[in-house]
Amino acid sequence: MTGIERVNDNVTLKEYIERIFDEREKALNQAFRAQQEALALATHSLELRLEKLNELRAEVITDRAKYATTDKFDTELGRIDDLIQVTKDALVAINLQLQRDYMRKDTLDSILVPINNQLSQLNEWRNQVIGFGIAFSLLACIVGGFLARHFGF
Predict the structure, then answer these.
(1) pTM of the full predicted structure?
(2) Which residue from 15, 60, 88, 152 has the fewest beta carbons nearer than 10 Å?
(3) 83 burial class (0-12, 13-18, 19+ CB within 10 angstroms)?
(4) Which range of residues forms the domain containing residue 137?
């Protein structure tokens, strides 16, 4: 038996229309509840994501405090450059003194070898500091890119 036959047989048009409206209202209420549940789930998911991002932000801030600042790095690098320059100046002065005094080669070597070793060590340390600065810059770029990607900057 179809809906039209039933209207014609047992139900008035008013009852039929009211039943259709009731069924549509039930369907709309059910759809509304489903949307509310989906919204609650999406809200919960967003809150979890924001919580994780805040945790990541706290870790980044903690890690950032462990690294040398640019000012401190530049100050130390300047101090190392000054030490290298002082050592070079000392070598030049020793060389001039040797030329004036006509020292023997073995005397010159005994004076210059420790100075050259110290100069080599300073240059090696300076290169390590510069390498650390480059690594720190790359790490900062990676962290910044990661944060920009996740926060949508």
Answers:
(1) 0.37
(2) 152
(3) middle
(4) 69-153
Domain check: are 74 and 144 in the same one? yes
Distance of CA 114 to the CA centre of its chain: 44
* Helix residue spans in 10-101 (DSSP H): 13-66, 70-101
At residue 151, what is the residue type?
A: F
92 and 121 co-located in one domain: yes
Separation in Å, CA 147 to CA 19, 59, 68: 55, 12, 20
- Residue 87 · residue 125 · CB < 8 Å: no
Phi, psi of 103 (to 5 degrees): -70, 160
Q: What is the pLDDT of residues 39-54, one digit of tens each?
A: 999 999 999 999 999 9
